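Pair request: fold both.
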Amino acid sequence: MFGYKAQATVGDQAYPAYELRRIISSLNKYLPEPEPKRQLAELFEELNLSRSQLLSSTKVYVWQVHLAMHYARLWLGRSAGALIGQEYQPRDLDLLLPHLSGCANLSDCLVLIINNPQLVGSFSDSVVQDNGDFLSIRWLNTSGLAKEVYCDLFVLSVTALMTVARQLTLAPVQFSVIELSCSANDITIGEDLAADIRFNSDICQWRIAKSWLALPVSTGVSALSVDDGAARDSISEQVINYLRDASPCMPAFATVAAALNMSERTLRRRLANAHCSYQVLLDLVRSQTALALIIQGQLSVSEIAEQMGYSDVCHFRQSFKHWLGLPPGYFRQ
């Protein structure tokens, strides 16, 4: 379970619907009257989704969750992620429930989540590290989300994780350290989530003591069978898979369109409809390829640049910093 996890999802890739339902229900709770009815009606229209469709779905699109979180920040301010995350309950996690009931302790739950990102959704790549008495997870923004949205989603995630962990264990579980890449003026996070909360860090990450992970859990929910929904025809995923097969040499847009049996105009339109672009997918796959090679530690930065088709290592370093906001050498640590 340790090491680099290239699991970020984008565009019209599938994402668990329960997260979108929780965002919507939180907006309905925290928006002042009479705003919820009008504003949520506008949001559903933007999402191209009805309430009944959302209630009956197990999967939605990644862009729909991004958009809902954008409106949550707009309407609830910097507290959006914390307010939504604290509303989570184990019974909300419909796709996860049949598996969660087989976990004996928090460590089992965490392994389940790390090894099955499709059950919980993932906006980010991550690096899972064993630090002796602690376990840490670094988030890596390979999908190029704006910092504000990215930090909101990170706060939502850590708040939801801790809220559910406390309900499963009936214990005051907390992280040892939470680091955020934004300032305290940009985001609100519950002070009780961690013994140490740090702002303006290079990346978002959290660390937890293994003693907490050893706690036994009780879901209190029967292991119901949940239909994870029919496979979606995701154009984002088709392009990503083609690029990964071609990696480390990235094909031209026209080549990808031809391989997918469509015109360049059609592919561009379908990606736009998925709230995505070829450049976003290209940068995602490039950054994941480079990260994997850097973390493996077998090649120098110059060798990685050459393998990825860069004739100038300086150009590769610039591109890498554009993708992740940090130089390649940072991830050698």
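--- second member of the pair ---
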Amino acid sequence: MSDKLREDLQRKSEAVQQIMDPTLPDYQRLPAELHVYHSFYPLDEHREKSVKSGRIAIVFVYDYHPCSTTLYAKHLNPHPQFQSASLPEKVLWSYITQLASALKTIHSAGLAARVIEPSKILLTGKNRIRLNCCGMFDMLTYDGGKNTSHYQQEDLLHFGQLIVALACGSLAAVHNLPKSIDFIVRHYSADIKNVMLYLLSKPSNFKGIDDVITMVGPRILNEINSAHHYNDFLEGELCKELENGRLVRLMCKLGFINERPEFDMDTTWSETGDRYLLKLFRDYVFHQVDETGAPITDMAHVVQCLNKLDVGVDEKIMLTSRDEQSCLIVSYKELKSCIDTTFNELLRKP
């Protein structure tokens, strides 16, 4: 697995598995369980309260995506995490196609997003964006769906403003459109400009997300191809890790057998017979030293030996006792048989 992918996955895993320090005063206030959820961790310690009554305000709950950021934090704040003269066009098209797809789904359901702004769009992975806070305004300003068409037109307008802001790297760009359009014409293709101008045009009954999807159609194919390539990459990385479970099970069996202090009233059980061979093999794999006596920590050697043992190849190796008075020539196939026999012996013991 690539170091970058491993680091990203580990950071997300750590974020998901966070637990609160039991010594903190707020720990006792957390419920042990709530509905079907448990092991709670406060993501935000800021407690919103109503200005009038002082009571805790309404809370909207959405899916948690660890280590996410927003498009605003990534590209538009005074110190953006992404530093470049301009946002790469390929990335911008990726954002446009994903947002167009999201709006198509929302508008087709007779709804409006009403949250098309950089601070409400999450970046959860490599160019992967998700709409946040959907449905919030529908609840806070419920009108029975009377103004849905108006809100859908606002979605398209805000979509265009978002493209301008991302392309120019500034939220203020929408307030000086002639200059912003000139910048976009010089740095991006005409297709970007055409989509942006369509979205910024006056609302009408003939203006809809379907037209936007038609305009970005060729770019959607590029997005699909990129998604397939990334899936192929992830599948390749998964294949590298696929067999790790076999090696873990093998090491567990060795752990059950090696250095067992007593079995079946025999205190020397782990030091005799097949078990002694497995002890020497454990030393051969994990306890080798170089000519200066320094430990050899070669992970490749460990993985190679365990893979050969798991398969049971006919290759022979020399096992040496710790006092270097005895040497045994044995094959991986014979060692595999020793493990299976010994582990089954442990399982049969009532």
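Observation on the second member. Residues 280 and 324 are 11 Å apart (CA to CA).
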